[in-house]
Design brief:
alpha/beta, globular
């Protein structure tokens, strides 16, 4: 069901009675839509977790993918992370884990440094900001994670993904994150079966790894 977080931001929430943990799921660039409503419902049903997914680009839902790519630089970490933390509170669970996709994966890396989350898994999140995403409110994901109070982090990576080049992946590993690199996979190969990059075999394996990691 749709709720309003304490920050005023819309979110999708599926509550499970007596859930042993909550999960915050940060959507990709295009935000909440039926695809992510389905992911929230599926993960709640399969894992018995209360799952909450906050909206991104609040008040700008009409923007196209290209327009959103142009204005990521205007997003402010403080506001986005406030929504992520409010989503964690909305689960009502003491133990809360975190995941996200693409841009949401980037914010997963940043939010994993807040000390609020038990574990985090980022699906092809940007480890360093793309040049055209740099802005006054945007901190570097790797720097924030390494310098904060980081929880254990798993990064799911496509080896052919231009947003996560090998040097960035190596730097994330050197900082202490665990990575799962899929050879031949491009950006966005897991979460949306309608994308040309989707790899059903890799997606199934990546979901399995992430669930196992977040369940620990």
């Amino acid at each position: 069901m749709r709720i309003e977080l304490s920050t005023g931001t819309p979110a999708e929430l599926v509550r499970v009675e007596d859930a042993d943990r909550g999960l915050v799921l940060i959507p990709d660039l295009m935000g909440l839509r039926p695809l992510f409503d389905d992911h929230v419902a599926r993960l709640a049903a399969e894992q018995g977790w209360t799952v909450c997914a906050p909206q991104v680009f609040v008040g700008q839902e009409e923007l196209t993918a290209g327009e959103r790519m142009e204005v990521v630089c205007d997003l402010d970490d403080e506001a986005v992370l406030a929504d992520v933390l409010a989503a964690a509170d909305a689960t009502g669970c003491e133990t809360v884990v975190l995941t996200g996709f693409c841009m949401g994966g980037m914010y997963t890396i940043k939010a994993a440094a807040t000390g609020r989350f038990h574990r985090a898994a980022a699906f092809y999140g940007m480890i360093r900001l793309p040049e055209h995403w740099r802005g006054p409110g945007q901190g570097e994901p790797l720097e924030l994670w390494a310098a904060g109070d980081p929880c254990p982090l798993l990064a799911v990576i496509g080896a052919e993904d231009p947003f996560t080049p090998p040097d960035d992946v190596a730097a994330l590993e050197a900082a202490g994150a665990v990575t799962a690199v899929y050879e031949g996979a491009d950006h966005g190969f897991v979460h949306d079966p309608d994308r040309p990059a989707h790899r059903a075999d890799y997606a199934a394996d990546a979901w399995r790894r992430v669930v196992e990691f977040l369940s620990q």
